[in-house]
Sequence to fold (106 residues):
Amino acid sequence: PTVAPLLDILDQAQQAGTIRTLDMNQAIKARMAGYASGGSISKPSTSTPSGSSPGQSSAMADAVLNRLTDAIKSLEDNGVQASVNLTEFERKQELRDKARNKAKKR
Fold:
């Protein structure tokens, strides 16, 4: 649940073909529209998860935010591992080579 929104952003950018130019800061800000400085622009609800006090709820929120921050730092430092299908890669190279050969002939 902590990393799922980040993976959704990456997946949408990959499907749209904009993964190379993806700015995670902008994507996260767009996803968090309506929030400023970490808070909602509307009046927050005072309800807490059943069986927890407001202090516990705040501690859980802090823990989740810390995990999210660590996940983002890890993505910034290590990137995202992605499998590459060699046959698809070779097809793209062949297509590129054909286009270059046609350009040379003209």
